[in-house]
Amino acid sequence: MIGYNFAYLDEQTKRMIRRALLKAVAIPGHQVPFGSREMPLPYGWGTGGIQVTASVLGQQDVLKVIDQGADDTTNAVSIRRFFARTAGVRTTTHTADATVIQTRHRIPETKLRDDQIIVYQVPQPEPLFRLEPSRVETRRMHGLADYGLMHVKLYEDIARYGQISISYDYPVMVNGRYLMSPSPIPSFDNPKMDRMPALQLFGAGREKRIYAIPPWTEVRSLDFEDHPFRPINAPHACGLCGATDAYLDEVVTDDRGGRLFVCSDTDHCAERRAAGHVGAEGMKEAAE
Amino acid sequence: MAYVAVKGGERAIDNAHAWLAEERRGDPALPDLTLPQIREQLGRAVDRAMAEGSLYDPDLGALAVKQAQGDLIEAAFLLRAYRTTLPRFAHSRPIDTAAMQVERRISAVFKDLPGGQILGPTYDYTHRLLDFALAAGDLVPHAPKAHAPQEPMPRVPDILRAEGMMEADAPDDAEPGDLTREPLTFPADRDVRLQALARGDEGFLLGLGYSTQRGYGGSHPFAGEIRMGEAAVEIVPPELGFAIDIGDVVVTECQMVNQFKGSKTVPPQFTRGYGLVFGFSERKAMAMALVDRAMRAEELGEDVTAPAQNVEFVLYHSDNIEATGFVEHLKLPHYVDFQSELQNLRRLRAEVERAAEAEQSPSPVAAEGRGEGAAPPTPHEGAVP
Predict the structure, then answer these.
(1) All residues at 6 or more sequence positions from B57 whose CB lies less than 8 Å from its CB, including other chains
(2) Which of A4, A13, A38 to mutate to test the interface with B (most CBs of B within 10 A)?
(3) Catalytic residue among A205, A238, A242, A279, which?
(4) In contact, A13 and A193? CB cutoff 8 Å
(5) A207 near A124, Cβ under 8 Å?
(6) For the whole model, what pTM was predicted?
(7) pLDDT tens figures, B322-347
């Protein structure tokens, strides 16, 4: 784009962000403050992820952007266009073809490889913020690995509800040291973070924090021996492709309680259908 | 209804933008607003966009106001997103407001003072009656003119300081912080706090400042001085080694004078809250000065009990570009998280039902015997067919 540098940010800024990324990779799960810039998209809409992506993107990269697992949600479209316009990089919707994947709220169902980078958009990097709003205080708690407050919260959930009541943004322990917010992905996705071959980068623009999980790092969802971590998903199969191991969106089909469950990962679902898998809804339509 | 995967996000966005552009233009039978019109006739709007957008340029401010259809936070956002791409070729020297070309200068603490009181173009003593003559348009008002005051206009805190009644400014030669380059860290020094306030939302600061007057962290303020006018901006290019004037900015400055009881080491004296804002924005400058003083509570050994005194609270929530982005991001899709919350809630409710059934089943007669007061079993509202 005329008048702007490759991928919008100037090289000085990208270098500053890459330095923060290097530090983040060196201290897995630790939140590194960085001089987040004002972006032409609003805070809370992915400015952190966009800055991280802009800093790691090269001309040969192939970018995939998803929001809620889907490539065609409006914000994903908007961010993909932003990079197509400012960096001129190739974009794709196929997980396997992408070298950089920017995501909001999901991890693709297709297993990521060690030559891929996944960039998460993070609204609130501080996993303890609901328990302790002061960031001065939470910084101290991270420094001392003083995470008792979170364990007490999980214990109180069990005492009150018989189970842990967190369904998304489920806190994880990274490399046995730092408590980390996995961003608001459903807890269903948490196990995918553990020992993932791909580099995982997290950008929080408004909160001005970057953190990272290097490839093959241990990521453990917090739990207790007698109350092991249980990811949540709808007990159904995808209505379109029949998948039983993918995270499902619930679609309201009428006002009489009609529901349809479909894969939230649109690329995964489309590939399965292309390969001949058909769900209950697809069979019904074929019969009609 | 057959489910059709939501496609066409790209087309929807393009169409929305086209509609927006049409709506912004309004009735095409009416003349298009020009930037000079906005700059000249909606100056306070341009000022606010420049102040919160952290960019002094009345023409760009007018463009932002026009492009945002008068939504001033959106206008400030446009200016912020533009300024972030600008190269920095120099840092200005501190502007000297004592030497400004004053258009307005009032003091609420001295009836008269060197340089006098100058009301300037203020709404203060207007009666807020809708002016239907203005609606008819075509007015070219003429204000009587006087010679610019020649007498020096010392700033009120300087007058008080000469007598030792006002705290001395702590000399500080350190490079001031810059929130637009470095993330906020705590403890945040006053330079950074003032920068955040100067960029902060007028409404938020107004509410916080007001809260200090109603007992939430009060500091007995007096409007020592408010002045508005043009101040010269100077830079010192390294190749020249001396200061050159690169232009003027209109600013509003407010110096609040506050009581201070003194401490073991400091005799009782007045303390200061400071406000400085681009353009003519007295409300914001005053609110800023109140909040600045409130945030000095810890430094001055006062109890920190109120929101306006909590530096972390104020600084993290004063930026309206951050705030509007995050509040409004709630309209982005959250299908995935909401879905897991739905499943979670169904699981929790199933657990409650199971427990209730287990309680009732051993002795159904006894359960019936509890009478009308017993709650009926919860219907499984969330059940999926």
Answers:
(1) B50, B79
(2) A38
(3) A238
(4) no
(5) yes
(6) 0.86
(7) 999 999 999 998 989 999 999 999 98
